[in-house]
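Limitations

Structures in this collection are predictions, not experimental determinations, and the ligand pose is part of the prediction. Treat each record accordingly. The example that follows, with thiamine diphosphate as the small molecule, is included so readers can see exactly what is and is not provided: the inputs are given verbatim, and the output is the predicted complex.
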Amino acid sequence: MKEAKTALEMYRMMLLIRRFEEEAARAYSLGKIGGFLHLYIGQEAVAVGAAHAMRPTDSVVTTYRDHGIALARGMTANAGMAELFGKVTGCSKGLGGSMHFFDAENRMYGGHGIIGAHIPLAAGVAFASKYTSDGGVTMVFYGDGSASIGATHEGMSLAALWKLPIVFVCENNQYAMGTSLERSISVTDMSKKADGYGMAKDRFVAEDVFEIRDRLKDAVERARRGEGPTLVEILTYRYRGHSMSDPAKYRTKEEVEDYKKRDALNQLRAELAASPETAKDVEALEAAVEAEIAECVRFADESPEPTADLLEPTTYAGEFAR
Ligand SMILES: Cc1ncc(C[n+]2csc(CCOP(=O)(O)OP(=O)(O)O)c2C)c(N)n1
Ligand SMILES: [Mg+2]
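Predicted complex:
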């Protein structure tokens, strides 16, 4: 088993994300979570590979399908689940909910509901790194359905022109809500868009978390060397519907089952269980994840709700904030 310690850590995090999402779905159906809930199940390897490609001082920006990326960057399951439950102990004080996970300490700058609009924001974070020469790289995630939004183009244009230290990661999960890729975009190889901006590009299937890490790391280090942005299209798949209210009738059960056969999490588990170096650790690690998940649900349940006095300081800054 190559890099056994890292492999175990990557598996632990992928499993934590999957179990977090499953428990969130359960809590949603019990009425403990309000508003929207978009699950990341099936795409975990992307977030975990990405987190391992970055330094703690690098930054991340993403869309509303944000729980996995937040956890992979180091947010605690407690802070994540409490946010979903709308509790004051959540990462956004219970005021943001599922779509607005935010964790400045781990440089996770959202969690954004308006798709595409977060791309110029990420370019701004990357600009700050370039302007202050802090050596940081920004990684921004967006979906196939965000690729055709005007703001995506504007942010990419400027980032390429100014050679900003940024990596654009297109998580192509084949669907934008209920619309398949072929029905929403004329060129389905989205990495080709990089050519129009004069950016480097890459494109691959998300099956091996190590490959995801290594290929994203190439892009991150290119950005860090001052050679500008890269557009990386990663072909992935979400097993659940777009949100909890989506029964996903626009695709067949066979299609979903086919993707599950190549599940990156299960493949890594099989490798770890087959290797004498790591086999003994797998079950203990899984028990620890179960305990962490049970604890975060308990924590979220028992935490208090936010109170009205939070409204002003979380809306205004400076002299207007009390
Ligand atoms: C500017 C804007 N237009 C429309 C929406 C409504 N909307 C929410 S999710 C979504 C599809 C996004 O699909 P994709 O980018 O592929 O992300 P995925 O859900 O697959 O992760 C749309 C159109 C939105 N959030 N923002
Ligand atoms: Mg999509």
